Batch of 2 targets.
Target 1
Amino acid sequence: MKTVFWRTLVIIFIILAIIGAILPGMPTTVFLILAAWASSKGWPQMDAWLLNHPKYGPTLRNWRKNGTVPRKAKWLASIMMLISAIVMLFTPAPVLVKIFTNTIMFAVAVWLWLRPEPTQQSKQWVDRALTDADILIDLSQQILFLKKNKTCYFISSGKNGIGETENSGKTPTGWHCIAQKIGHNVAENTVFVGRAETGEIYDELLDTQQPNRDWILTRILWLKGLEEGINLGEGVDTFERYIYIHGTPEKNPMGIPLSHGCIRMHNTSLIEIFNTVDENALVYLSKEPLNFTFF
């Protein structure tokens, strides 16, 4: 019954989003955010489809990671829903449809205004990161930006979300450096365990034989936190948590958080980054959206 409930909510929100795409004044993105939220509770296939949608996917992934809504966006969505509610009153739609639709929009507006807003402090950290970091990682959009080459790469961060706590399986945020580069000149798809080569080369046969293995391939960039009490020190230490930027099989999708806390990348992209940056290069992992057009 619980699955049926969540899937019914997903369908309702998607229908409202479709109506929003047709009816002037009614928002689409807000209802898709709600659809993604409901699908995460009981419809994983729909959740994956929404998060990978070519048009709305980045916004939905940003919401999933960040959870904040700018005040300007709240006002815009609320005004659009108010206009839509007024228009709905003058349509020939059945009274029950009008009541249901307008009630849903009112509830969504209340929910929207209860969401937290980005802080000024967060903006200041982001501005500094855009200036000083060698590698920028936007966890909200699942993108890594290599400043020297001005190139963006899709990544996959922790499936359990964002966080610094030891044994949480979450990806840390804040200022880091590359403490060690491991895997110089080894063959692509070389398998690592405990940062040591196993002598294996990943392929489909090996994957079939060990389907549940968390593959660490090709290169490792071992991260060290630089902020005491946040990502450095007892219980939150990125280095002691063995958080890497590392290679993963090409079959593993990028743009979706699926790792055990590390930053996964496809091997060719990882090699490009590995060959470009030095040890001690600065890395900033942000839960706030980053504007890469800055460059």
Target 2
Amino acid sequence: MNDKNQTVAGGTAGHAMMVGSPWSDGQEERGRTIQSVERALSLIEIMAAANEPLALNEIAARAQLNVSTCHHLIATLVGRGYVLHAGRNRGYMLSSRLNELVDMKSQEIDLSDFVRPKLTALSEQLTESVQLAVLRGTNLVTQMRIGQSQSVREADELKKMTALHATATGKAILAWLPEAEMVRVISENGMPAYTDRTITSLSGLMEELRHVRRNGFAIDDQEIEEGVVCCGSALRDEKGAVIASISVTFASRRNTEAYRTHVIRQVVQCARSLSDQLKVSRS
């Protein structure tokens, strides 16, 4: 199937409207813990307790590790952004990454509480399943699901985590990422075909995302699961950044132009209303 056909058959373009082994790499299992993880956490605790950057040999001594082992662990933490190298003469210190993770989790909890009433009302109005999804690293995480669509067997959540190219919630978020970040997410997850409607080329996906940006909504028309259609739209915070997406799922047998248009309008309206409230509440 060529890119054009894939886009029209499976996505928004055809529905436009004006709205390895766990113990690899030398890791040792000690009882029910992993030694390398314990050591890395010890290094984080040591640097957290210090009032200034610590030299490598000082960290190794406090952790009772040889310098080579300590260096490999710290290099990994530096690579993941949890530790900063302050310079050869100053040593290593923690970054703000851990604080960012705590803040991120708090925002997730706040977001769930914030959107629940409107998503519940949307689900009851349409008598369909409504979802809230966020991007965590390169994975799509369904943070909330309300209601149950009639006669719909939804895709497994583990499969959806890496299927941003084939889900309405995923495409609604991908469309607004910087292009380099979007490519990184797709490269990490790949673009496997789940049905004959799945978009499996980067050029096809980029064309699809252009339609998402133009129309304000994303469509998954049986792209991840046969017989299942999903319409999604992005949520924006007070700065205008996309922080999540919402979607409504329904059976493909109900996918008439009139019903699909009705669902899309309700989803887009709900997303805009929530985004407007987020701007006011967080400003």
